Records
---
Amino acid sequence: MKNKYIIIDTETTGFHPYDGDELLQVSIIDTDGNVLFDEYFKPQHRTEWKEAEQVNGISPEMVADRPAISEKISEINAIIENSDTIIGYNTQFDIGFLKANGAIVPDDLETVDVMEDFAKIYGEWNSARGSYKWQKLTRAAEYYGYDWSQRAETAHNSLGDCYATLFVYHKILSGE
């Protein structure tokens, strides 16, 4: 079944997919909020990630018995292959980690970065960069009145972040 739009989010051990950081969680939903993929992963090289753990709450113990990303990448690829557009919050970060782990994301696949769209709406100028300052997803969600308590997943859980991104995306589209 083809999904025109999918929302993707990841949680990782750090910021650098080509410098040893690894995926800890990948979630994908459709625009109706249906979960297409949601899985935790055991890193294959890192045994701890204290800074990232403070943010995403994913401990080495939580993922000790989870599969490696290599065991599930074909499922992720099938979802991406059957999609026209990837929506995310800092989309290129997530795509970079997915590609570093074998995801096939065609260069001509349309992407929407809700973070960039929200930066313009929020309007905080960064004169050093000559552009609008990127805001965290939690700030965008708060700006539009997203209720994190409506779901079990919290901020910095990739599934929770998918739902918040979808909410903010709909608010931006509707011009609210």
---
Amino acid sequence: MKKIGYTTKEKATEKIELGKDKVQESFFPIFNSDKADTENNKKRLREFLGLEITPDIKNIYCFDDIIGIDSDYMFSFNCDAETSEKIIQKHHLEKDEHSESAFGLQHNFSWWNKEEIAKLDLYSWNKNHQYFKYYWYDEKNKKSYYFEFTM
């Protein structure tokens, strides 16, 4: 039997699991909606919001729903006001008092309280009424909510 460079079965199993996750990740990116600050959630935040994870960014939760012809992505995380302002500028979001908040499309999680979010100012961007970005920032709790979806 050819030696594969591992001294234990556990190390080999760990390497296989990492390889499996890498393959899955290339086809179906992993979102961890049940646990904060996972490496997958940090990756997704960097990809979707274009942010480096700075010390003020924590308690990162995210979720995706890509089944069907539409898709939606939800992110909740703590950050300071400066980071929130960077998000608004980077994504060309504008304060929006006219749009519906698309709460019917959003999913229910302990980290996504629609009633509390509805009290916050909505910032939005959309392209051709098909691709949308919604963002809310709770200054008191230093909490951001980002919702991206297609119709």
---
Amino acid sequence: MNKRPATLRGIAQALDIHVSTVSRVLNGNLDHAGRAASKETIERIRALAASLDYQPNTHARTLKTRHSHEIAVLVPRLSDIVLATIYEGIDEAAGAERYTTFVANTLDLPERQRERAERALARNVAGLIISDVHCTAEPGFLEELQERQVPFVLVSRRRGEHCSVTSDDEMGGRLAAEHLYSQGHTRVAVIAGEPHSSNARDRTASFVAYYRERGIEIGAERIIPGHFDTEAGFSIGERLLAHPQPPTAIFAVNDFLAIGLFGAMRHRGLVAARDIAVVGYNDTPLAAHLQLTSISTSMHAQGMRAVETLLMRIKGEPVQSHRFPAALIVRDSSVCSP
């Protein structure tokens, strides 16, 4: 039977030592090892690695003299037009610098994120661009990458102090609220997207905060989370519209949710702008065709900026997070009074 090759994580678990310590001992030089652990711990790690016939990770061995010109991009689903547009920007910017890119779909699952990232690192990629980070997660994989000195940049979503390139989603949520409030809408609802996504949380929180500042509390029954797709938009829309006092305006934190909402409205004989004001988010190409008011997020530019930032990290240059300003694009769907 074929034995599975030994891994840094397996050795770390067997010895009850942090994986970053094992990595520095086995993939670094003597100075790195001495700073990472005591002499006794170093000997234990090396002894177990030898007994398991551990083969050092190619990426770690060449960390400082990296020759690869590949960038791995981790996305929840490339079928999402927002992420596909961001990736087009990534690929364009990378190509201009003679880098190639490839995508790994993680289905927004942390365990798949780790597995796909490790596969990419085994290919000695130059760095990672990550768009599937969970803002609700405990410290873990990103911190390990940081300790292992793997260059990475977050895009579309953010978490903590990790370097990220995003839209200003707090600004975007506020713009949506300001637009609806200015037309007299006080009975409003939010189709809030995925709770683990920083962009959904920021958009929702700033929208709710704007109304709270004006003395209007949006009840929890009118702030409903769900997947970023039309099916969720339809089902959540049905719930909101079935209320004895349905909202006069609904903010959907992405355009697909808004499109699903349109279906729920049509199912009840309702029309956006005539019966209910609707605002979406991301200003995808479909928004213009459907006359959907939406928030522009500079999707393509996010991708390009993510590559520029990652290449600076690869060169060892200082970097900082960047947020593109959001912009409200008003169309027919939201122009109506309660």
